Amino acid sequence: WEIAWLRAKDHKEKGNQHFNRKNFEEAIHDYHLALDCLKGTDTQRLPSDDLKSLLISLHLNLAASYLSMQKFDEAIGECDLVLTADPMNPKALFRRGKCLAQIGDHQEALRDLVFALQMSPKDASIAQELQAVQNRVEVTFSCMEDEQLFERFESDGIVPSFHYLDARAFSLMKREFPVVLKHHILAQPANAKWNLEYLSQNISDAGNQVYISNGNKFKYFDEANNAGKYDFEIPVTSTRVSFREFAEKLRNDPERKYYLQQSLTQEGCGPNVISDFKAFDWEWIKRMQHLLDMGSIKNNTLWVGAKGVVTPAHMDEAFNFFCQISGRKKFILWNPKYFDCMYLYPIHHPHDRQSQVDIENPDLERFPKFANAKSVEIVLEPGDVLYLPPYWFHHVVSIDESVSVNFWFIMKNDKTTKRQTF
């Protein structure tokens, strides 16, 4: 085994010399000879870390050689072997990303390159390749008209989702299209621990705003907003209780549903929760606020609800980054172009901004235009962030017991006339 080990390293060195001279076929030949030496040897006597390191370096060198010869499938195969042994190997991710970009699979290329840069943040070659692929993708999106772009996603019936560093995600946000940002670190300090048990222990006993429903629907209302003097029945009740009492009722009261909606800027959240909150990626938020020309932050809300809780279809006059912390939530969205199809309550009604249509059982005799409203939907997983622009209608269902946090931004003055246009 000692002789085989030395021969393998010798072939590797010869392969490197061929590679440096750009004799790629000869390099590939020597790298394979090195692998053959190791295959025919009792490698169990070798230190496992040494063997793994040598095998990985040989497959990486083969990938580099195939890539230089534009044999992209072979290079991807070598990278796959490395990533099986070392799933976050930056060189393998980088080389596979370059190959995927060359064969036109830009989404997978971006994923690999983003992960590679996260593992090697100072590697200029990875950053340069990532920027090149992002530019290529953004040009493709920018060539599409808004209507054409939305029809592309509407036909699939799903909200587009991309890694949060993907240029396509930012391109959609700039054009005020909803998009799910995957693998986001915005609320990472909360993602690992904000469940009912942690929040019960760390949110103080000061009163938290909790809404109570005999059914499963929590329809927003403002009782004071009834200048039209409409007949109105309050759909839910509200109270202020400690988080522990809320969690107890949420899990043990079969007759009613409970939904906590608590501002994270208010007193009573507790030092640990506030510490987690302060550790959110505020630099990213500030950058988006500037790049997307949003106004100031309106509010940050903690949403905690039982499985099956529903927020009926409505729209908000604010930008929204909605972070799913634990459990899953389904969002059903409608483009603002379907404004007339959603049959909103009058503006001076307590249910202002809410749709009159029961989305789960629509009465098409009363609301015939609703049949023309095409929706898209997405299930948010823990760690996902949904960018929801103003005026997009959304109907939200908690698939599991759920914890979420959102960031609301006001619209600047030049955008407040949009509702009047609709």
Mean pLDDT: 88
Supply the helix-strand structural class: alpha+beta
Unreliable runs: none
> Could you describe the largest sheet, including whether it forms a barrel?
9 strands, mixed
Architecture overview:
The chain has 422 residues and is an alpha+beta fold. It contains 15 helices and 13 strands. The protein has helices spanning 2-20, 24-39, 48-68, 72-85, 90-102, 106-119, 124-142, 146-154, 167-174, 188-191, 196-202, 243-252, 271-278, 282-291, 418-421; strands at residues 161-163, 179-182, 208-213, 237-241, 257-263, 297-305, 310-314, 319-326, 329-334, 375-380, 385-388, 393-398, 402-409. It has a nine-stranded mixed β-sheet. Strands 7-12-9-10 form a four-stranded antiparallel β-sheet, with no helix packed on it. Helix 9 (167-174) links the parallel strand 1 and strand 2 (179-182). Helix 3 runs antiparallel to helix 4 (72-85) and helix 6 packs antiparallel against helix 7. The N and C termini lie far apart (77 Å). 37% of the residues are buried. The mean pLDDT is 88.
